[in-house]
Design a protein that fits this description.
The chain has 6 helices and 15 strands. By secondary structure, the chain is of the alpha+beta class. Strand 12 and strand 13 form a beta hairpin.
Length: 386
């Protein structure tokens, strides 16, 4: 580390002469002044580097459904506030697809009712039991059975209580050695902890037994269905199978409809317009033009959060070991070269890149004050202190 000292000792003989003439008091004063001068002129170790202001993250807006871009109401580089209209869309055809899906579900339900009404009593029973079987199987395999969930939540709460009680008990054991609590108080805490552990043990056993019981219910239902199917004709079996197939089609169509409608609930979609749904943003890039037809899922725009800008500078490989994350830095912009902006090292890349034939390491500087003066793409001079 390079240190420069300005000791401005013009002449040792002059200082010695001064000491002999003024005596002990003057000698102390001169020593103090000399120390001050050394401290004032000692330069801090620093590294001068260059870079640019970059966005910490770039957000991409996308339209998840087929649409056509009608209007674009801003340009790249514009600063916009929450609620500002960015674009307008035409997606009437997608709305019509939703209506068609709703009609499809209605027709399937009518067909299902007709098929169900033609079943004989035994086939109706089989259908009902099949529906019950699927529900129970799904709850067990997906972990959504209400009774099991309730016990699992109780076990989680008991785990938390046991953790707290164990820490409290360990602290109490250390306190009893210095007379901080009585033997009875410690014994009470020990018993309370044991009770909590026993409650957890009982809850885990209940969970295991209930899970086994529900699995037995599933197996019993399967057996019952198999027995009933032996007593019905092939025609009845075919009718029952048709009802089951229609149930599956209805479920699938309802899931698709739910997903289609969910795509219209994005926070940045308001009627036909795309609006900004964050506090403010800078338009970094517009990826479409008026009249562009979107199939669904394509990005339409990239936005920058102006409150989350950083300076990205290149540090030569020979100096990278001198700096560490957390060290202070000052930034200087071309627009105001005399005004320092306080920053700190927030990230050091773990891989080098070649810049003009020299190995460089990217270092990220996080601004700690006056963030508002930074703009995406601004060039910066930076001083990193180490």
């Amino acid at each position: 580390m390079k240190k420069q000292f300005s000791l401005f000792l013009l002449s040792t003989g002059i200082i010695l002469g001064s000491v002999s003439m003024t005596g002990c008091n003057s000698q102390e004063v001169n020593a103090q002044e000399l120390a001050k001068e050394v401290e004032v002129n000692q330069e801090v170790n620093q590294l001068d580097v260059f870079g640019k202001v970059e966005a910490a993250a770039i957000r991409e807006l996308a339209v998840d459904f087929p649409a056509t871009i009608e209007t674009i109401d801003l340009k790249a580089g514009d600063l916009v506030e929450k609620g500002t209209q960015l674009m307008t869309l035409d997606y009437e055809s997608y709305k019509n697809e939703i209506i068609k899906k709703e009609q499809e579900i209605q027709l399937l339900k009518v067909e299902r009712e007709a098929a169900y009404s033609s079943l004989d009593p035994q086939s109706v029973t089989i259908n009902q039991k099949n529906s019950e079987l699927k529900t129970k199987q799904n709850q067990l395999s997906n972990g959504t059975d209400p009774e099991l969930i309730k016990i699992e939540e109780q076990i989680k709460i008991l785990d938390q209580q046991i953790s707290i009680a164990e820490k409290d008990y360990e602290v109490s054991k250390s306190l009893i050695e210095v007379g901080g609590i009585s033997d009875k108080e410690l014994k009470d805490k020990e018993m309370s902890l044991a009770e909590l552990k026993n409650n957890k043990y009982q809850a885990e056993n209940t969970l295991k037994q209930l899970t086994t019981s529900k699995q037995l219910e599933v197996d019993s239902l399967k057996g019952s269905i198999d027995s009933l199917q032996l007593t019905v004709s092939n025609t009845s079996t075919e009718k029952a199978s048709k009802v089951e197939a229609l149930d599956i089609k209805i479920q699938t169509a309802e899931t698709e409809l739910k997903e289609m409608k969910a795509k219209l609930t994005k926070a940045y979609l308001k009627d036909k317009a795309i609006v900004l749904d964050q506090k403010e943003g800078v338009v970094y890039e517009i990826l479409v033009t008026e009249g562009t037809r979107l199939k669904g899922g394509e990005p339409i725009m990239r936005l920058i959060d102006p409150s989350k800008l950083t300076a990205l500078v290149d540090v030569p490989e020979a100096f990278i070991n001198k700096i560490k994350v957390g060290e202070k830095a000052d930034l200087y912009l071309a627009a105001s070269p005399d005004d320092a902006i306080s920053a700190k090292v927030s990230r050091i890349a773990q891989a080098a890149k070649v810049v003009n034939g020299e190995n460089m390491i990217s270092v990220e500087l996080e601004v700690t004050e006056n963030q508002a003066v930074l703009k995406q793409g601004y060039e910066v001079n930076a001083i990193i202190y180490y």
